[in-house]
Amino acid sequence: MSSTEATPAAAPPKGPETSKAPEEQSLATAQVDGAAPTQNGSALQEPEADVEVTLADMQQDPNNPLFSAKSFEELNLKEELLKGIKNMGFRKPSKIQEKALPLLLMNPPTNMIAQSQSGTGKTAAFSLNILSRIDLSILAPQAFVLAPSRELARQILGVITHMGQFMEGLVTMAAIPDTTKRNQKYDAHVLVGTPGTAMDSIRRRAIDTKHMKILVLDEADNMLDQQGLGEQCTRVKSMLPRNIQTVLFSATFPVHVIEYARMFAPSANVLTLKHEELTIEGIKQLYIDIDKDTDKYATLLKFYGLMEQASSIIFVRTRQTAEQLEKRMVAEGHKVAQLSGALDGAERDRIIDQFRSGQAKVLITTNVLARGIDVQTVTMVINYDVPTMANGRDADPETYLHRIGRTGRFGRVGVALTFVHDQQSWKQLNDIAQYFKTELEPVDTNDWDAVEELIKGIITSARAGKSTEEMARMHH
Questions:
Q1: I need a labelling partner for 328 at 20 to 30 A (CA). Which of 157, 245, 278, 372 fits?
Q2: Average pLDDT of span 23-29
Q3: Is 168 helix (H, G, I), strand (E, B) or coil?
Q4: pTM for this predicted structure
């Protein structure tokens, strides 16, 4: 399958003659990443915190067992959809799915605003709702998922196609830049795309909207908050039928965005978590105090051997820093890839696919990849620059959470290491720690061998919740 073409879901596989094109394989592989760990389904190492439900209908009791599902079988799903879920490795609903699915699947359809940590099955929840509601006898767009980047859109397309693989005749398509001919019609049941391409395609009547039932915004806080993207999302919604089910999902919803979200998805059922319940269990959060900005590069190189052991992402603030780091590291013989918004679509697709397949182990990127991208093998995230708001001064806790959420997917062990080098970056990181009511642990730079052993121990540990003190004891 190519993300430039319609993707019919195969009939249930009949044997060895069933084959997939390379792109289809990469998307399907990508998504057992975004689905669930195949060995134990969605029995995830999730925080103990419960999902708080606020129902649009105030007379209903959110604790009613009707609004919770402990198994997928309880949801009265089509057999081929249950088969698709099991095939993806899900055994039972995760906490967010437990609460979200009964509400999403209710009739008549109701809007939803849902918040949950990265790696807890949000994508699978809205994909399941979409595949439950579409009518395969009508080959016209019935559901549209919007995402802030082409990488995330391609990944979501992979989840939906994978989950719906036993739904004979299902067609899904990507609506992202550089993937379709100018006058091509989108003849598919489900579309996944970016807001600009969606808006342009609807205007050109390349997308028939009259059968559209569901609009989903993934990473919704980012979409509604970003100038331009928020406006495009609002315009897309205004071009769709008025009674459409609107679903907003994100790991974070800052206070100033939640009001906009409530206007965008009126009378919605709302699922939320508190700030301090948002930091991700299973990720050991460390920081390293560096004397000055110019020493950051030398410090980064000390970690290169560790970064190569599995897969790692280095987050930087600007495209220029990403390009400079890549040039310096490649010139010194280190194998790294770099991805930022400056690259064209085909190049971005090639790089993210290389990273997924393990051809590239270390990826340098800006915040373009901070959200939603699932690559199972990522065990280390380095914040080369502390994430800040657009003004460059104030800390950005939400972006920090999204960045570190690229590791430790589905309860696996991961390391997040943040560089601080002056008073300002120290204050920014401290503000982030206070926001989430969490403590970050310092790395002792006087003994690099001990640092390496410590991080190796965390990466190879089977238990995510061990403290660094316990790890240190293990290696002495």
A1: 372
A2: 33
A3: coil
A4: 0.65
